[in-house]
Please model this.
Amino acid sequence: MRLEMKDAPGQLVAALKPISDVGGNIIAVIHQRDPGSDEDTLVVQIVLELPEGRLGELVTILKHQGVHIQRIGEERFLYQRTVILIGHLMHTNLSDTVDRIDTTGFAEVSELSMRMPAINERSSSRLTIKSVTKDDMEKAISILRSVASEKDLLLIEPLEEIA
Amino acid sequence: MKVVIAGMGSVGRGVVEMISKKSLGLMVTGIADSKSGVINNDGIDLGGVLEKKQKTGYCGDKKISATSVINKADYDALVEVTPTNATTGEPGLGYIRLAMGRKKHVVTSNKGPIALAYKELKKLAAKNGVALRHEATVGGAIPIFHTIGQGLAGNEILAIFGVLNGTCNFILSRMSDEGLTYEQALLEAREMGYAEADPTYDVQGIDAAIKLVILANTIWGNGVTLNDVNRTGIDLLTPDALRLADDEDCTIRLIAEAIPKKGLLRVSPRIIEKNHPLVVEGTLNAITIQTDMAKEITLIGKGAGSIETASAIIGDLLFIRDRYVERS
Model:
């Protein structure tokens, strides 16, 4: 997000503190003085990770402190899970398998590694899936389960313990 | 306390050997195998029986059946260690009913009767005022039911995760460590005596699923059966899949899991971090219990073996002695 605040001592720290207060994690702070800009204000870009649903709360706190939010960038995928698929992956149209996840709009296959021992032998691939929320991840895995059963592939899921 | 032992396979022999070697305060008054039996209400000479069994294949007199030993001997607890039949539970199921009808406590390592008729047998035990203990049915020497029943008393058990089949764990360990194919690792497991001639029971996850059913019924009393378990075996795994997992510092293990709140009862090969406590080597078993107060507890131990299983049975016998027999 891109923030505009008063160029006075302590202002930047005051703007960053609420991020950790709502359980967020600051990945990067980009702070550049624009020579053409008004001397009184400071524009800062912050890249951060936030728990689901906390963005609204953060925005309210920042506004309350007199920080002007110029722009909120795209929400990025936070949840990541790796699965392994075994079977005749090419013959059963691997790109369709990946598409079934990518076309959901809420999850995507971000990485794919494949090992093919020989023609006609079963191949193995590792897929990394990303999603914004945990629920979306459950849905994506459930889609993969039905694709695997439809295409006679063995799906190996990661062990996710309940906390 | 007086004990009768039904079944003289590797587990039964292990129990007899340990009772004769250690001074546990247990006296054996009856022993039966599938073809013979022996009764002596003043205590059987255990060394003599072990020798006879080894030399002739019979533990006693061919005219004395297991049923008559269970019916006629003077004893407090039956140790029922006959072979598992997952379809009928017999002959163990009948022996257990018979002993309980005579108001005798029962300790068993037999998965068949416990997986098939746990509810009925628990009721029968309560009706007759006796105990039914089956520590040896799950995880071999691991005291899982003692841990849950005594050590974790008062905790709500939220979930169970386990490596419950040593054969599968051995095969997967070898595939992961040495890059063997499934077929090569299975062959090795057979040579080491870890796998049966027909490995279906183990590699398709049936054995692990039966143990999961026993765990679920014992802990939550939810009456689930083998058919309720969502089951995938390890026989279709490729060495490539293990390498792909290895690239991410993970491996693949056959995990049995039960999470009642999610209605989840599943046995399947899973990607799991190598430093996870459930990643154990070779034929070892491991069980993680998740509870509300204690949080996570993992037990690791030998999942099979004559003396190892005898350890679980003797633990049950001494529990019964301390809690029931010596009180009265």
